[in-house]
Write a structure and sequence with these properties.
about 20% strand, 4-stranded mixed sheet, 4 helices, single chain, 6-stranded antiparallel sheet
Length: about 170
C-alpha cells in the first residue's frame, strides 16, 4: 500500500495560495504509485501552549517552524509524534482511522516525557481541520492509498538544564 505523507502536526500543509499548475498536477497524479514521502499541500494547523494553557488553533501556509537554538525539543528530546491516515470511502466520504486511539497514545507519550497533554478534543479538532483543508489530497477510493497525517508536539522554550519546557507547539 502506498501512502501520501503530509505532515500535519508537522501537519504540514500549505493554505489556499494554490496555483493553477498545482491543480493540474493533481489531475495527473498517479495515486497508486506515490510512495511514502513529503508532499506540499494546502495548509497546516498549529496551537501554542503557553502560561499553562493551550491557545487557539491557527491555520498556516508556512511550511517552516522557527525555533530558538536552545529549545528543549532540540537539546532534551522533548517531543512526541503520532501517525494516522485519512481514507476516502467507496461513498466518497473521508474517514480518519482510529483518531481517538492516536490521541490516547500521544497523551501517554506526554505523560512519559513531562509535556502537557493534548486533549482528545483538541487533537480531533486539529486533525479534522487539517484534513478538511487538504481534502483534495485524500486519494480516491480505488487507489488503495491514504493521506498520512503526522501530529507533532515539541517543547519550544529556550532553556538550559533538564526540566520540562514552559512552552510547546502542537503542529
Amino acid at each position: 500500500t502506498f501512502f501520501l505523507l503530509c505532515f500535519l502536526f508537522s501537519f504540514k500543509m500549505c493554505i489556499f495560495a494554490q496555483r493553477k499548475e498545482n491543480y493540474m498536477e493533481m489531475e495527473t497524479l498517479d495515486w497508486s504509485n506515490l510512495g511514502f514521502g513529503y508532499r506540499k499541500t494546502d495548509g497546516n494547523v498549529r496551537c501554542i501552549y503557553k502560561d499553562g494553557a493551550w491557545g487557539e488553533v491557527q491555520v498556516s501556509a508556512d511550511e517552516n517552524i522557527t525555533l530558538h537554538m536552545a529549545a528543549t525539543c532540540l537539546h532534551y528530546g522533548q517531543d512526541a509524534f503520532e501517525g494516522l491516515k485519512a481514507f476516502r470511502g467507496k461513498d466518497g466520504k473521508v474517514r480518519i482511522f482510529r483518531l481517538e486511539a492516536n490521541a490516547e497514545r500521544l497523551q501517554s507519550s506526554c505523560d512519559g516525557i513531562m509535556m502537557p497533554r493534548v486533549s482528545t478534543e483538541l487533537f480531533r479538532e486539529m486533525v479534522t481541520k487539517v484534513v478538511a483543508l487538504n481534502e483534495r489530497f485524500v486519494p480516491p477510493y480505488e487507489s488503495g492509498a491514504s493521506l498520512y497525517i503526522r501530529p507533532l508536539l515539541i517543547g519550544t522554550s529556550a532553556q538550559v538544564g533538564v526540566s520540562p519546557s514552559k512552552e510547546y507547539l502542537f503542529v
